[in-house]
């Protein structure tokens, strides 16, 4: 039985010794098992893995990377990808270049946006999940994550973080989102290493809002790519989105209260009580469901369709957060919250 672990000297297929960042250990079972004879051969250094073993190792490495970021797919990756694409397609935040025609296809833009966002999430999640308090919390809330499930050690996670920072910065520079990446790195350091997000619930909500909005801002710049980016109207839109997220993001804390209490984290449900937290989420969702369309000068009488989506989804989130209070229901409610956010993000297409 084996897992990813701290770097050790491995026998390379060519016969040379090499140090691997991620590799298997024979004490904890991975997703794809190996026979006892193979394990014995590995221990005796007489086994030379073929292509199948190599692809198995690659698939396990990729699956481990996926597990680090899996929790952010529905709440960050998908919504912020759509945020960037909606902003680009609306043509409110960019203009065609006067010197050349747009060369990037929509598929190329989608790939670039998804890659950039996922790399940002990988850096953020590696930095967060390697911390001792995070390991303790994940043991309760998310035992399937790579460190708590034994797929990789804390030390190897730190090394992987250093590599991912370099790769993310290089890719961001190539895609034209260097400043957004540097700002996210700074927020990451303040959030995790300085622990500002645990000190006060207001600071936690603020940093979450800044982080998510910065990811959306950088993704928008990546999506626009070869277009002329208009920073002024985009910045106003980003500020509105940050305010919306800051006042409703603690919907994610409703189902994590047990783990947050173990970590002594300051969250709205733990500081002000579960009922007060739910009421504040409901009020914020209803408020922004009406205000956001109005900010795009969408008059209800003429463009009432643009109000229907946010109000209906906002009402659904409100009803669920006030009535359904089980942990499993709160997790599903947060997914509906993410869907409501996406509906808000589509407003530039209508305005």
* Overall form: globular
**What is the helix tally?**
16
Q: What proportion of the residues form beta strands (DSSP E)?
A: under 5%
Would you count the extended β strands for me?
6
Low-confidence stretches: 1-44
Largest sheet: 2 strands, antiparallel
Q: What structural category characterises the helix and strand content?
A: mainly alpha
N-to-C terminal Cα separation, in Å?
A: 57 Å
In which order are the strands of the major sheet placed? 1-4
Quaternary: single chain
Rg for CA atoms = 23 Å
Order of helices and strands: EEEEHHHEHHHHHHEHHHHHHH
Q: What is the residue-averaged pLDDT?
A: 85
Helix content: 55-70%
Descriptive account of the structure:
This protein has helices at 36-43, 51-69, 73-90, 106-129, 132-141, 154-175, 178-193, 196-199, 201-224, 231-246, 257-262, 268-272, 274-295, 305-323, 327-345, 347-350; strands spanning 3-4, 9-11, 17-19, 24-25, 94-95, 228-229. It is mainly alpha-helical and 351 residues long. Among the domains are: 3-60, no CATH class; 247-351, no CATH class. Strand 2 and strand 3 form a beta hairpin. 39% of the residues are buried.
List keywords for this structure.
351 residues, mainly alpha, 16 helices, 6 strands, 67% helix, 4% strand, globular
């Amino acid at each position: 039985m084996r897992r990813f672990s701290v770097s050790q000297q491995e026998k390379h297929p060519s016969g040379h010794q090499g140090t691997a960042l991620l590799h298997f250990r024979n004490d904890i079972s991975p997703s794809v098992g190996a026979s006892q004879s193979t394990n014995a051969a590995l221990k005796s250094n007489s086994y030379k893995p073929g292509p199948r073993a190599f692809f198995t190792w690659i698939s396990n490495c990729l699956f481990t990377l996926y597990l680090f970021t899996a929790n952010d797919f529905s709440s960050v990756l998908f919504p912020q990808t759509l945020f960037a694409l909606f902003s680009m397609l609306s043509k409110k935040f960019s203009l065609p270049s006067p010197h050349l025609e747009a060369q990037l296809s929509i598929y190329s833009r989608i790939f670039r946006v998804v890659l950039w966002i996922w790399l940002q999430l990988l850096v953020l999640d590696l930095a967060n999940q390697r911390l001792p308090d995070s390991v303790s919390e994940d043991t309760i809330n998310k035992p399937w994550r790579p460190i708590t499930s034994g797929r990789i050690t804390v030390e190897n996670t730190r090394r992987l973080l250093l590599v991912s920072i370099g790769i993310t910065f290089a890719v961001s520079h190539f895609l034209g989102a260097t400043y957004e990446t540097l700002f996210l790195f700074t927020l990451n350091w303040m959030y995790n290493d300085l622990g500002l997000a645990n000190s006060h619930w207001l600071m936690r909500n603020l940093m979450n809002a800044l982080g998510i909005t910065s990811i959306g801002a950088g993704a928008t710049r990546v999506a626009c790519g070869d277009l002329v980016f208009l920073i002024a109207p985009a910045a106003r839109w980003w500020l509105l989105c940050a305010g919306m997220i800051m006042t409703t993001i603690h919907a994610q804390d409703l189902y994590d209260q047990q783990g947050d209490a173990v970590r002594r984290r300051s969250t709205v449900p733990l500081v002000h009580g579960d009922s007060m937290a739910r009421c504040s989420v409901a009020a914020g969702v209803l408020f922004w469901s009406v205000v956001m369309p109005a900010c795009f000068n969408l008059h209800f009488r003429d463009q009432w369709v643009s109000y229907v989506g946010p109000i209906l989804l906002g009402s659904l989130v409100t009803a669920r957060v006030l009535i359904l209070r089980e942990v499993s229901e709160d997790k599903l409610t947060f997914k509906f919250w993410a869907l409501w956010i996406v509906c808000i993000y589509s407003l530039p297409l209508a305005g």
